[in-house]
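Human: I'm a chemist; would you kindly supply sequence and structure tokens for a protein?

Assistant:
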Amino acid sequence: MTLRLTAAAFLFSLLCAGSAAAQPQEEKVLRMFLSTSETGLDPAVASDNATLSLLENLFDPLLRYDYLARPAKLRPNTASAMPEVSADGLSYTFRIRPGIFFTPDPAFKGIKREVTAQDYVYSIKRLYNPALKSPWAYMFEGKIEGDEALKTHYDADTPVAGLQALDRHTLRIRLKARDNNFLFYLAVPAAGVVAREVIEAYPGQAGNHPVGTGPFMVGEWKRSDRITLLANPYSTAVFHATAGVNPEDRAIAAALEGKRLPRVDRVEVRIAEEFQGRMLGFLNAEYDYLEQIPESMTDMVVRDGQLKPELAARGIVLSRFPVLQTYYMWMNMKDPVIGGYGKDRIALRRAISLAYNNAEDIALLKKGFAIKAESPLPPNVLGYDPAYRSPVPYDPALANALLDRYGYTQRDPDGFRRQPKRGRTGETVPLTLTMHSEATVSGRLRDELWRKCLNAIGLRVVFKSDKKTEIIKASRLGTVQMFESNWIADFPDGDNFYQLLYGPNAGRANYARFDLPAYNQRYEAARQLSDGPARQKLYFEMNQLIHAYNPWVPLTHVLSGDLRHPWLKNYKRHPVEFTQWRYLDVDVAQRARSTRAK
């Protein structure tokens, strides 16, 4: 199905149309891909990286990250300045810039609709709607003064004392307790402003009618195939950033400072789920840049750790970027085979952790573009301890001994272990692990790594391949036993990673459904502390509990190998935001020359 927002497209064409005598300028088009299919474009609901990449270009939160500042820091977006914060650290007062408008939609009945403080009140309340099951609700639930009223009986009109529009452009949020990360929450795509008229005009279909205030708006949309974003003619975004001393950063700042965003007219986005298609598409100049060279494709472009000379001669640039990302394999703690807190189940999960060959994964599958994950936290996240080492090494001999000790001694004729004896009869039943995996070349390679590791300790494993979006849906329902996933920081603080194992988040971000009181108590205590020795001690203890009960096998942290063509301007990878599309520019003439010469 192809969706066309004709009102938006018509407005864009009017804006771009010049007089008959004017010399037409060639349209600047950024060509991109997403690695998985998008889901509905509703900021309250979406959580996959592909959809979030689109949402952060369509919807506007109050705050956004500074494009150039490192370490990452926030700056005003639709707010005219950073908020006024009360002396007790509980109240935040935002002044919203006048003159910010939603893109056109029939729901507005022909009115040019300005964003107000009340729109942000509505948008934040909407995250509490139980019908939406928002994966972002945990960031706000129980934290805003009076928000228990929304939990008791959800209604968008229910007054919340700590969430008020003081006037048309003034928003005040008051918390029940200090939260050192609260401003980070207000910069995630889920905090983007939506219009109530639009949500109510399309009941249950808001994800099919994305109407925001971001730098882009949807033009043509063919689901799971391609989507075109058009420069929003209503956009009031202007570039400001903190450049630092890096010469490349200074050049970007000089090129963009004070200029209206976005810099391109269109972004043409394709869905490219196969690694080979992405790489060949980039090399054929179908995509302007490629982030994270696919593991199985590294040898096509890299030799001895450097970009191949023939590609460097084309002006292609290779850069390495430490992503705030953790790869992990989670196990469902509610699963009847692998879940639970009994000693035999803990031993099974620990044995699986001991069987994972990290060195082989990094060297052969990730081609050296990764480091070992010792804990959930990647480097450069607040709370990361570079000295911490996991107490669970790669040790298949120890894994076998552990399984023998805790009752997994009986084996099938083919040599695979059976489950421990149960009940009065003492009978054993076969033990088969089921691991979901992505239906891609990389997914199949990872299947073989896990098969090799688990077979080495006598464990039979079968693989169930599907699209990642479908696996995520099933994971939230609790019907997936094991799955290798990854988490990219929503904000650069350890809390964003440790919440993945917090009991109340089970069924949302906590796919493992890990719910251990000792962990939950430490997580709640750590949330009240800023980065420092006291919180570091709690994080150490939480790491130890993770390694003791093994709901996760921490895998790797990615060192992304990124490629870009020479005609792409103003590119700089950000550690938190998903895309740079609003800042990027394209030298159309240079692209034409390069593609002719290729």
